Amino acid sequence: MTVRIGTRASKLALTQTQQTADQLAAVGGFPVELVHIRTDGDVLTGSLSQMGGTGVFVAALRDALLRNECDVAIHSLKDLPTGAAVGLSLAATPRRVDVRDVLCARDGLKLADLPAGARVGTGSPRRAAQLRAARPDLEIVDIRGNVDTRLGRVPGLPGNATTEVVPGKSCDLDAVVLAAAGLERISRLDTVSEFLETDVMLPAAGQGSLAIECRTADAPARPGFAEGSKDVLAQALSALDDPDTRLAVTAERALLARLEAGCAAPVGAYAFRKGSLLHLEAVVCAVDGTASVRDKRATDGLTEVGATLLGIELAEVLLAAGAADIADLQAS
């Protein structure tokens, strides 16, 4: 049996998929092959939010699973819509890596050191809002492209292919903000000038986590659910699942779902287990950075139900504090 693993063809997607495929093959003892799937997010140009948000990277992979063109699909979990996909299951959430966002700036500058009016690139309304809250004097520039393309917008970063200033293409920004996890996976952490701690910038729900999705009939059997499998693939998927990561992302995604937050809503969320408690902190920001509501809660209910209830509880707190009044939560 060869397990077919669906992936986008970007450098980051291929790298994280190959790493996960190698782990699956080692645990399951079966051969694997990567199946490249082209998504709308890889083809269309323009603002990510105008294309329908991060879900554009997921739909084609899900369709390929349902058409039996691949057996599993690997996503960045922050790209996964919170709504259930009929016929598919989130089979595994491998151990989470660094959740933080990072600043990649010219001359090794940190966020506090950037000069007034410095041009900082990001395609994320969440990042843009929190950047404006921290440094309202910055010019935030909406950018698209893969990781290398974005890094290429900042002059002098290690690994950049050119030093030519071309507006909109290369060396025309003072900094960009990216996810630490992605840079780590493609070995470009040497471009980071500052790791942005969560008190400055809360990450996207699921950031730093991968999602392994498969058809529900092939997913590991789980307590309380009638569907599921106990075959070799299901056992391998179960072995890759990290319970603490699953609890954390369940809480974060439940919060998003209760907020009815679209892919482009300026919402940050971070959950983690510490001892006998699962902690969750979240922020909803005005896109212009002038207002925000932020709070945190914890629970000793260390189950998926408990994590879900934690996310709902904190969402209710944020809504009661006016979250829906300061941000377009349905933005997509």
Task: Name its key features.
porphyrin biosynthesis; Hydroxymethylbilane synthase; globular; alpha/beta; 5-stranded mixed beta sheet; Porphobilinogen_deaminase_C_sf; 332 residues; transferase
| Helix amount | 25-40%
Could you say which structural class the secondary elements and strand pairing correspond to?
alpha/beta
How are the strands ordered across the major sheet? 2-1-3-10-4
Number of strands: 13
Straight-line distance between termini? 40 Å
Major β-sheet annotation: 5 strands, mixed
| Mean pLDDT rating | 92
Compute the number of helices.
10
Describe the global form: globular
SSE succession: EHEHHEEEEHEHEHEEHHEEEHH
Unreliable segments (pLDDT under 50, ≥5 consecutive)? 47-53
What is the alpha-carbon Rg in Å?
A: 20 Å
The amount of beta strand, in percent, is 15-25%
Catalytic activity: 4 porphobilinogen + H2O = hydroxymethylbilane + 4 NH4(+)
GO molecular function: hydroxymethylbilane synthase activity
EC number: 2.5.1.61
Cofactor: dipyrromethane
